[in-house]
Each structure stands twice: as structure tokens, then as C-alpha cells.
Amino acid sequence: MTIIFTSAEDAEDAFYDAIGRGDLDALMNVWAEDEEIVCIHPTGQRLMGPMAIRDSWRAILTNNPRLIVRIKRSIRWKGLLISVHSIVETLYLGDEPTPHGPMLSTNVFQRGAIGWRLLSHHSSAAADTYIAESAEADSEPRNGIVRTLH
Predict the structure, then answer these.
(1) Mind listing the pLDDT tens digit for each residue in 73-118?
(2) Any idea what the Cα angle at residue 48 is, between residues 107 and 52, rounded to 5°?
(3) Which domains, ranges and CATH numbers included, belong to the chain?
(4) Residue of 104, 78, 110, 96 whose CA lies nearest to 5
(5) pLDDT category, 126, cuts 50, 70, 90?
(6) β-strands 67-78, 82-93: how paired?
(7) Cβ atoms of residues 28 and 54 within 8 Å
């Protein structure tokens, strides 16, 4: 069943919700049905196409049975057919008290016949200067969401 996301924000929420539930099918339902979709994880490998992206997320969800991600939405650019979100992710793995990150992530969405879909997800480790600035800022996300991921 194809879900129609009426906004890029709805698609993004569904993406992180699917990760939190460990639901690979729901996660892939957020992606555009296009061979040109791209996912870059913090490891730096560029994955193209649904099969490569599915395989990478399958490995992530299998190897991280308990993953918590705190998300801050910091910048959004939205047009009629495309929306770009620059967000900050902080990862908590299992019972480890120390967070991993922050990660700077960019999600690119496109509006089409079946609503908004993810074209690209790019996540990388933040530079040391950003980490120092973040440590001085409020620990709670402003205008953001906090998600507990699977």
C-alpha cells in the first residue's frame, strides 16, 4: 500500500518513525521510486538506487537493535516541487550513555503524483567547531522533535 505524504515534513517524520520501529518496508516507502535516489551515511559511502539503499538500512537496523536519535530541524527551504531540510541528529546506541554526533544531515524531498518522497539523505559527522558551539547551546531541541528510534 502506498502512503501519500501531503508534506515533506510528513515524509520526514515517517522516515524517522520507520527507523524507530525498525520497519524497513515503511522506511523504503518514504523514498522516491527512482533509480537515481542517493543515500550517504556517515561512513561516507555513496549509495545509489533502491536496492543498495535498502541493503544498507537493513544492515543498520539489524546491527543496531536499540537506536535513539534526537533531531533538531534547523533550516528548511521549500518550493512547490522540492524541499530541502538541513537537520542535526544526535545518535544514542544501545545502553551507551555517551551520544554519537552530532551528525549534520540533509534530506531532499520531491513532490510528485504520489505525494512527497525522499530523493536524498546525506549524513556526516559535524566539525569540531560545531560540536563546541552545540555544547554551549541548550541541550533541548528548539522547534524540533525528539524521536526514540528502535
Answers:
(1) 779 999 999 999 999 998 877 777 788 888 999 999 999 999 999 9
(2) 105
(3) 8-147 (3.10.450.50)
(4) 110
(5) confident
(6) antiparallel
(7) yes
